[in-house]
Amino acid sequence: MDNPRIIVHCDLDAFYAAVETLHHGFDESIPLIIGSDPENGRGRGIVSTCNYAARAYGIRSAMAISEAWRRCPGQPYGNAIYIRGSRGLYSRASRKVMKILKPSAQFFEQASIDEAYLDITEQVENNWDSALALCRKLQEEIMQVIGLSASFGIASNRILAKMASEVNKPNGIFRILPDELPDFFEGRNIREVPGIGKKRATQLHEWGITTIDEMYTYGEISLSRITGERFAAWITRVYEGRTSSEISPLRSRKSIGKEHTFDYDRENYQVVLENLLSIVRRVMKSAREVGVSGRLAEVKIRYTGFETHTHGRSIPVTMDDEEVFVSLAEKLFANNVQTNKKIRLIGFRLGHLDTPKTKQTRLLSIIEEE
Ligand SMILES: [Mg+2]
User: Fold this and answer.
1) Which residues have a beta carbon within 5 Å of ligand 1, which is an ion?
2) If you measure from the C-alpha of residue 258 to the centroid of ligand 1, how many angstroms do you get, rounded to a whole number?
3) Which residues are catalytic, by number?
């Protein structure tokens, strides 16, 4: 049998709150709540996220902002800080973190703005102690260079690595060795398995199942009568460490797209087309950087007044050839643009992505024929 892969899940701790704290120089011990305007406790929106100091008061994501205010009022009634949050800051911090992580992995996958999976099997030469040391080094580097704290989980597949990164949060590292699996699951609440939500947990509670090992001892066949076969088979694989360890930029990415909003609505279609083609070239450049090719071209046109249309065309095999998609986009635009309207936004999306095994031959001629 092959050696198990060594998969790392890196998850930044209270990411948005940490970035804001760093940016504004806030005191970490003061509750910080990011979300809609609390309007002195009368606000009707929700909490987007908060720092650990606020979590200590039971404040959570998606809680009513008025409830957060009741628990931790802001000025002048209390010292909690309420802010709206700024997407740009988060993306910039995220890019810096990913830049530190990526070179340490043979396969790398950014799963969200503050999470990534790394397959480091080759880098650490199958050595689980070296894996621990590498994560410690990355954790320190992220703190030193960017000032953010991150948690790491190390295990033989994705889902276990993700569970492991939660164990010692914040600023934690936790490793599950392949032969430690039954011990790890013993007495652990079923809700700790990503993918088991409230509804599923309630259903299992009704049968007296609260921990992962209880669920497993129930047996796949009995369990499938409660939960259905698919879930029972899946959770059995989770318990036995047989779920996927494949790390690929595609898993978290269904398409690559970019768009451009004009500073004023355009009626010069030549200018719009030139813009579109430069967007296509940039999209194809990112596709090549990530190492993927696509089978679907989609052009998005938004007219004055927000009327939006997308026009798509797929090709028989996936490709990353820039000229193929430039030509497709050009045709999609020419055939569909409504020339009696001004254009507000133009965009392009490459979809039906795949990682190419071998380079496909150019398809340009096939497209020209139609
Ligand atoms: Mg996080």
Assistant:
1) 11-12, 15, 114
2) 25
3) 115
| Residue 99 belongs to some domain of the structure | no
Confidence of residue 2 (pLDDT cuts 50, 70, 90): confident
Q: How far apart are alpha carbons 198 and 93 in whole angstroms?
A: 32
> What is the C-alpha separation between 147 and 19, in angstroms, rounded?
9
| Helices 128-146 + 87-101 axis angle, to 10 | 140
State residue 147's pLDDT score: 97
What is the CATH number for 156? 3.30.70.270
Q: How far is the CA of 9 from the centre of ligand 1 (A)?
A: 11
Which pLDDT band holds residue 356 (cuts at 50, 70, 90)?
low
- What is the share, in percent, of the chain residues with pLDDT greater than 70? 96
- Exposure string (b/e) for 321-353, b if CB count within 10 Å is 16 or more? bbebbbbbbebbbeeebeeeeebbbbbbbbebb
Based on the domain organization, do 4 and 115 belong to the same domain? yes
Distance CA 8, CA 160 (A): 9
Question: How many domains are contained in the chain?
Answer: 3
Run of H or E including 314: strand 308-319
DSSP H or E segment with residue 227: helix 220-227
Burial class (CB in 10 A: 0-12, 13-18, 19+), 84: exposed
Separation in Å, CA 277 to CA 53, 254, 270, 282:
48, 21, 11, 9
Give me the helix-helix angle, 269-290 and 322-336, nearest 10°: 150
Single-letter amino acid, residue 350: L
Q: What is the pLDDT of residues 174-186, one digit of tens each?
A: 999 999 999 999 9
* 262/365 same-domain check: yes
Distance from the CA of 252 to the center of ligand 1, in angstroms? 16
> What is the extent of the structural domain holding 25?
16-87
Half-sphere exposure of residue 98, counting CA atoms within 13 Å on the CB side? Answer: 19
Compute the distance from residue 299 Cα to the ligand 1 centre, in Å: 33
Model confidence at 220: pLDDT above 70: yes
Closest among 259, 254, 257, 311 to 284, alpha carbons compared:
257
Instruction: Give residue 308 CA to ligand 1 midpoint distance, Å.
Output: 34
For the beta carbon of residue 217, count every other beta carbon within 10 angstroms. Answer: 12
